[in-house]
């Protein structure tokens, strides 16, 4: 007879109440009116409660409390990596917060690679490598000041 054990943190995650099934993270200029709109519509039609931010935010603006709350209250974060996703400091800040929620709240993170090579993200090469280094340096400077 097999026994199963659950860690207290795993039980906390499974009993978590979520307001959204899915949070969509994407670069608007690349995918908002095409892939993301189709994905969002398909999810909603299947009864999946989905958060999609339709605001266009000024460059470099901090993630607002309402967006952080939506990320925290989503069971799954779907990240649509596109060619210019990493060029947006906003998207990278959102990604960092999603990964924090994965670690602290047990959020499931699903990547979608839209019209790009997944290895560029995994290996942090090309535009993604440059953007990740720049993002780290900018955030290190913010933390130190």
UniProtKB/TrEMBL annotation:
Domain of life the protein comes from: Eukaryota
Name of a matching Pfam family: TIR
InterPro entries the record matches: TIR_dom, Toll_tir_struct_dom_sf
GO terms (BP aspect): signal transduction
Keywords attached to this entry: NAD
One Gene Ontology cellular component: nucleus
TIR domain residues: 18-145
Keyword Transport tagged: no
Name of this protein: TIR domain-containing protein
